[in-house]
Amino acid sequence: MKLSNYRDISPPQGDVRAGFQWEFVCDCCGETWKSPFTPYRTGQISGLIRRVGYVLGEFYKVGALTDIVAKVGRASGTTVESGGKGTKEAALQQAIALAQDRYHRCESCKTTVCDNCWDEDRDLCIKCDKIAGVGNGAATSQSSDASAMTCPSCQTPSQGGRFCHECGFDMASTHKSCPSCGVTMARQARFCTDCGHGF
Fold first, then answer.
1. Taking the chain, what is the end-to-end CA distance rounded to the nearest angstrom?
2. Which of 24, 29, 69, 192 is 20 to 30 A from 118, alpha carbon to alpha carbon?
């Protein structure tokens, strides 16, 4: 199973905090899990050299030593950016391997869900499991079905109708717009795929 429910939250590669980390999100409930932080030593050393060059440049405006440190800092930054791709890809594969124990791919609706939203017995996410239960002739009335639903925005139990009686959320909406950049995405998205705005 190839996971795609993640976003890169790694610090810049040429920084003293350089490393690799990803955040995975459940497409059903929105719960997130962060992969363990993997330090990128080459990037950290490059960031340290750049900072030393900056400090020396501030205190000693001229000088051969300052010029040499600045050139080494620029060169190491270029090397880090070009050489870090393979290291980052390996770290991503390790993060995905760890996340595969926590997430499942529903073949019915093609979403990736966490353990809490997964029915192990039927190999379905809980949303598809409910739909399959109704389709198999399970005795459910419209009122009990509405009361079982909760608002995805404020988690208040629904009393039926299209809009949540507590916050006004459109219960029938399958998509939402990012308030920052206006891009449309799935309702369960926790972050905007274009600008990174958190919902």
1. 27
2. 192
Calpha distance 54→66 (Å, rounded): 9
* Cα distances (Å, whole numbers) of residue 17 to 13, 14, 44: 8, 8, 6
Residues forming a β-bridge with 150: 157
Q: Cα–Cα distance between 103 and 77 in angstroms, integer?
A: 36
The answer to whether 170 and 161 have CB atoms below 8 angstroms apart is no
Tell me the C-alpha distance between 87 and 84, whole Å. Answer: 5
* DSSP 3-state of 181: coil
Q: Is the pTM value of this prediction over 0.90? A: no
Mean of pLDDT values over 143-171: 68
- Burial (CB < 10 A; 0-12, 13-18, 19+), residue 59, is exposed
